[in-house]
Amino acid sequence: MALSRRSFVKAVGVGAGGALSSSFISARGREAWRWGEEPPSADSSEIPLSSNENPLGPGDAVLDAIRKGLGPEGALPGRYPGDYYRDPIAEAIAGKFGVQPENVLVGAGSTQILVTATQVYTSKDSPLVGSLPTYEECAGYAAVIGSRVKAVPLDSRYKMDLGRTLHAAKGAGMLFYCNPNNPVATMVSTSDTKNFLSRMLKYSPETHILVDEAYIDYVNDPGHETMIPLAMADPRVIVARTFSKAYGMAGLRVGYAIAHADTIKELSAWHMGNSISGLSFAAAIAAIEQDSSFIENERARNTKVREFTTDFFRKRGHGVTDSQTNFLFVDVGMPIEEFREACKKRGVRVGRPFPPLWTHCRISLGTMQEMQRATKVFAEVLGAARKSAA
Ligand SMILES: Cc1ncc(COP(=O)(O)O)c(C=O)c1O
Fold first, then answer.
1. Domain segments of the chain as ranges
2. CATH of domain 67-289
3. Does residue 313 have a pLDDT over 80?
4. Do domains 25-58+292-389 and 67-289 have the same CATH topology?
5. H or E stretch including 302?
6. Minimum-distance ligand 1 atom for the alpha carbon of 135
7. How much is the average pLDDT of 193-197?
8. Is 307 exposed, middle or buried (0-12, 13-18, 19+ CB in 10 A)?
9. Torsions phi, psi for 113 (to 5 deg)
10. Lowest mean pLDDT among 178-182, 184-188, 383-387
11. Would you place residue 386 in the very low, low, confident or very high pLDDT band (cuts 50, 70, 90)?
12. DSSP-assigned beta bridge partners for residue 34
């Protein structure tokens, strides 16, 4: 979507909540766009289910903070944000998790955290280890800088295979531990994770572990815990978080790492500074300070949509992994490229292929209304494929 400076300022002005939240701030469809798809147009009736976003965007507190962040006459965007926001955001994040500001590193999305950690802890001789498939950012960057990558297939329930990972990661520079895991949506339980991480730290003292908790706000298991306390206890553990998912702020690009102060110092040495705009900082602070019911409501909304969409596929005999996220991973039983193209022709964008799972589709969850429309399209596409196979 092209957005001129004038129309942006106008959009941020009086009564612009709708314009901001629907297309610009939540940036729906932008993740897929990065991976080679053309972006959906802002006013299209297409249903964008190809990037894992909160389809409703951020709450009013965030939108208000952006309007206020412009300052009188829009003057604040003319200032570098560091002086105004660096300390307050670190303090706000630290306060939320009961850690110190020196345990926090903020990035332009958690993407920047993933890239920095890959830069610092991997090399040709210190490989990156992760599951196959998993979120590709670290492996993609490792390839750019010439670091070796080892990929460990998932187990039969599409969960990370902890036994094989333990052995593969012996002597590695960094293990990327994405839990819940994108694109497969599954989660390793807290007790298995704790047990595995403590074994891993003993078994391979030279390995750092990046625990990616991008989807933690969508987990329903009441016993699920963050690994932040472990990161506080062991400098080799880093937890990455983002405002792009349940907070609905993918277009604002704010994420962060929580780790031991020494580890944050190590990462900071390679971290590009001034990568986040003042408006995004202001929005992120407001997001943390807003009523916790925002995230609880978003989790509850997503859970209903997830159940509805999971039922749709399971009733038709399609395997769906046990999702703890805002997307599903479905065996559509036909080549993913064909399924994707047929859905796109009918106005629904679904996820890109995730090799080597060529008949599986990642379907991000939209609103209930969108999923009611989208499942009609899925029924049509899958029905036609069945007919032609018969
Ligand atoms: C597991 C995981 N980690 C990190 C990211 C990066 O998100 P962002 O840079 O928007 O914080 C994504 C994006 O989809 C993701 O799925």
1. 25-58+292-389, 67-289
2. 3.40.640.10
3. yes
4. no
5. helix 293-315
6. 1
7. 98
8. exposed
9. -65, -45
10. 383-387
11. confident
12. none
The whole model's pTM is what?
0.90
Tell me what the mean pLDDT of segment 56-74 comes to: 91
| Alpha carbon 220 to its chain's center | 17
SS3 363: strand
Does the beta carbon of 255 sit less than 6 angstroms from any atom of ligand 1?
A: yes
What angle in degrees, to the nearest 10, is found between the helix axes of 336-345 and 368-389? 120
Q: Which two tokens stand for residue 353?
A: 């292929």
Minimum-distance ligand 1 atom for the alpha carbon of 181: 1
> Hey, which residues does 105 pair with through a beta bridge?
257
Cα of 114 vs centre of ligand 1, distance in Å, is 9
Report the mean per-residue pLDDT for the chain. Answer: 90
Summarize pLDDT for 342-373 with one digit per residue, the tens.
Answer: 999 999 999 999 999 999 999 999 999 999 99
6 Cα–ligand 1 center, Å: 30
Q: Which residue has the higher pLDDT, 222 or 283?
A: 283
User: Strands 208-212 and 47-49, how do they pair?
Assistant: unpaired
pLDDT at 7: 35
Whether residue 110 has its Cβ less than 6 Å from ligand 1: yes
Q: What is the distance in A from the centroid of ligand 1 to the CA of 348?
A: 22
Q: Is the CB of 182 under 6 A from ligand 1?
A: yes
Q: How far is CA 327 from CA 72, 296, 306, 342, 375, in A?
A: 40, 17, 7, 20, 14
Q: Is 234 in the pocket of ligand 1 (CB under 6 A)?
A: no
Query: By alpha-carbon position, which residue is closest to atom 8 of ligand 1?
Result: 109
Rounded percentage of the chain residues whose pLDDT exceeds 70: 88
Kindly indicate whether the domain formed by 25-58+292-389 is annotated with CATH number 3.90.1150.10: yes
**What is the 3-state secondary structure of 263-296?**
HHHHHHCCCCCCCCCHHHHHHHHHHHHCCCHHHH
Q: Which atom of ligand 1 is nearest to the CA of 113?
A: 9
| Residue 92: both structure tokens together | 């706000």
Q: Is the CB of 179 under 6 A from ligand 1?
A: no
